[in-house]
Design a protein that fits this description.
- By secondary structure, this protein is of the alpha+beta class.
- Helices cover 37% and strands 23% of the residues.
- Strands 9, 10, 11, 12, 13 and 14 form a 6-stranded antiparallel β-sheet that branches.
- Strand 9 and strand 10 form a beta hairpin.
- It is globular and about 65 Å long.
- The two termini are 28 Å apart.
- The structure holds zinc ion.
Length: 431
């Protein structure tokens, strides 16, 4: 909020801004740094959670991802920006966007995990949805629901740019970005066929058929495919960045939300006049499977699915700073056959130490396809340390990957490079 005259007085210009500015009372640890000509502030609770190491890591991510996002729109639209972070052992995890801040909830056990994708997603919302938003959400109403078929842009494309900013800024390498796309492909493939426009209405409908949050992965994947198609049609001279930036100036800056005509008009303009009527009808408003396999090669990429056999324990877990405890044991599971019980703290499986939730991925990778029939499962039960004999049960999983084509044509290589680096950068948007 903007400071007003007097001590500790702040002013919001209207009711919407007032309700959008979270405030907390308590002992927060506060630190700030200068990025992209703005003060970027951390405000963490409890204060002891902001150790110098975590502060440096968080600022390190922000130094990289913030400029990558500012470059998309050509301006940072806030006076300063605050990352409120609350951690304890009970929070659900996740974040909420505001126009000049984000509020994140992080489990205590995850304080040293990589939260850069959470920060990046919420940060991109400072433009996409807090300012650039569908006409259905302009003006915001506080007395009624405002369903929109555009959450696939507001959330899904925010997810896409959240991941892109990490790659463009150098927080993560290109493999991590390709894995992000691969995960979106598998999430979409495992959901019931639902148009991404209909899926956007789901947050008001709460369906139980598995399509609930589909506007995130399917929206992100649709945004990626549009980016590739725009770059392909313009010989990599125009990009989805241009669509986002031009819409931002043409609608938000003129006090409006965007309509379907605005959105598809800018997509088509960026793609040098190519019509997207058919794309919208089939893949956005319709439920035809997205043309992933035909579009990926245009960016020098290929989709691979391989079937792997990996061990499964059949348990649910709860983690905190003391370690990983079993919260559920499937009655016919390998863990049940070994004699594991709810409440046991898992120390190691075979030669893999179990220290947090990520350890299970290491365990599955280590013993994928193994011929070993049993493994020692070491648990702590009360004050005892027990070595149980875990029968190894392999189950089948289809692992999806997106990989660069080694001999991609020059144009496709340029497009792939352009997506990962954010080039070409757009024209100066002032006009
Ligand atoms: Zn979001």
């Amino acid at each position: 909020m903007n400071p007003a005259s007097g001590v500790n007085n702040f002013m919001a210009g209207n009711y919407h801004d007032l309700t959008d500015m979270p405030f907390y009372v308590g002992r927060f640890a506060i630190d700030s740094t200068r990025i992209a000509n703005r003060w970027i502030r951390l405000a963490w609770y409890p204060a002891a959670s902001l150790t110098p190491t975590r502060r440096d890591r968080a600022f390190g991510w922000l130094q990289k991802l913030v400029p990558a996002q500012v470059a998309v729109f050509g301006e940072a639209p806030f006076r300063n920006y605050t990352i409120f972070q609350r951690s304890d052992t009970l929070v659900n995890g996740g974040g909420l966007e505001h126009q000049s801040s984000q509020v994140d909830e992080v489990l205590t056990s995850q304080l040293d995990a990589n939260t850069s994708s959470l920060y990046s997603h919420e940060f991109f919302h400072a433009w996409n949805v807090k300012r650039l938003r569908p006409a259905d959400l302009v003006p915001y109403r506080y007395d009624d629901a405002q369903p929109t078929t555009w959450l696939w842009v507001s959330e899904g494309i925010t997810d896409y740019y959240g991941a892109l900013a990490l790659a463009r800024g150098g927080v993560e390498d290109s493999t991590a970005f390709f894995n992000f796309i691969a995960n979106e492909i598998s999430s979409v493939a495992s959901a019931p066929p639902t148009s991404v426009s209909d899926a956007s209405l789901n947050s008001w409908i709460n369906p139980t058929d598995g399509s609930g949050g589909l506007y995130y992965p399917k929206g992100g994947l649709t945004g990626f495919l549009l980016d590739v198609l725009i770059r392909d049609a313009s010989d990599n001279r125009a990009t989805l960045d241009d669509v986002m930036r031009r819409l931002y100036y043409a609608t938000y800056k003129r006090g409006k939300g965007f309509t379907a005509a605005d959105w598809w008009g800018e997509v088509s303009y960026a793609a040098r006049g190519k019509s997207f009527t058919d794309f919208a009808r089939r893949y956005v408003d319709g439920r035809e499977p997205l043309p992933v396999e035909s579009v990926l090669p245009l960016a020098g990429l290929r989709f691979e699915g391989d079937t792997i056999r990996e061990p499964r324990l059949g348990i649910g877990t709860a983690s905190d700073s003391s370690g990983v405890r079993i919260s559920q044991v499937g009655s016919t599971s390998a863990a049940a056959a070994a004699g594991a019980r709810v409440g046991d703290q898992i120390v190691s499986i075979g030669d893999v130490m179990i220290t947090n939730d990520d350890s299970f991925e290491k365990f599955r990778t280590r013993y994928a396809g193994t011929n070993v029939t049993t493994l020692p499962l070491i648990v702590r039960r009360g004050s005892d340390s027990l070595t149980l004999q875990l029968p190894v049960r392999l189950s089948t999983r289809v692992r999806t990957r997106v990989v660069p084509l080694p001999n991609a044509p020059a144009k496709a290589s340029r497009i792939r490079h352009g997506i990962l680096t954010g080039s070409p950068t757009g024209p100066n948007p002032a006009r």
